[in-house]
Amino acid sequence: MDTTDTFTGxxxxxxxxxxxxxxxxxxxxxxxxxxxxxxxxxxxxxDDLVEKYxxxxxxxxxxVNDRQADFAAVAQAHEHFxxxxxxxxxxxxxxxxxxxxxxxxxARAQLETNLFGALWVTQAALPFLRAQGxxxxxxxxxxxxxxxxxxxGIYHASKWALEGFSQALAQEVADFGIKVTLxxxxxxxxxxxxxxxxxxxxDPAYDDLRARTMQQRAQRNATPGDPNASAAAILExxxxxxxxxxxxxxxxxxxxxxxxxxxxxxxxxxxxxxSLLAQG
Length: 280
Description:
single chain; alpha/beta; Rossmann fold; 9 helices; 9 strands; about 50% helix; globular
């Protein structure tokens, strides 16, 4: 079904739409008259949106870890709607565990979903976006994509990698009229640290640090953001003529980033004599 000739809104492809940001942004896009190809592992979670918005939403069952399925889902969405304007890589989860505690399977699973899932969907969408000469790829990163805290090191690894390939991607696709934005939320009232999270088997050697880390995390997230309010923010980003490469969501990330980068600059300056020594 291709209604491109008569449709004047945006057509979205969003992963991880069963809850959290994905759910809120799907509903917001539909509510203003856009169309959404909404993926989830279990599409029954989208039944109420299908009942309310009808043909404007295309539910697609998808596990983003499956590269072949990612390509098939994006192709299905494009064939159904005739174009794709906004591709949102939102599917992901947080893993809690100190680096020594993380198993190989846990590390690979975190990277498969948060990094490779986004990479496969991005690769699948790019030929369609290049052909139409436009499009906007939204990568849902985190303040944890530019800073790092104890206990979520493998999560940080996945998001820092997402940030790296996306910054390179933005330069690679600019001439094709394609925009890239990394959305970097702070703490929000989602179940990211609840049912959606995974946890390593705790090593008692880290019990004291674990308690301090959880206390510090609670203090950082004392005033979490409202996922529903984030919908207005994402709509402003996708409607911008010149959207940002990076944008924080929430009040806390900017101060965290400023403090972190100030420390980095100070260290680089202090040790610049060694940098110059290494050059010869």
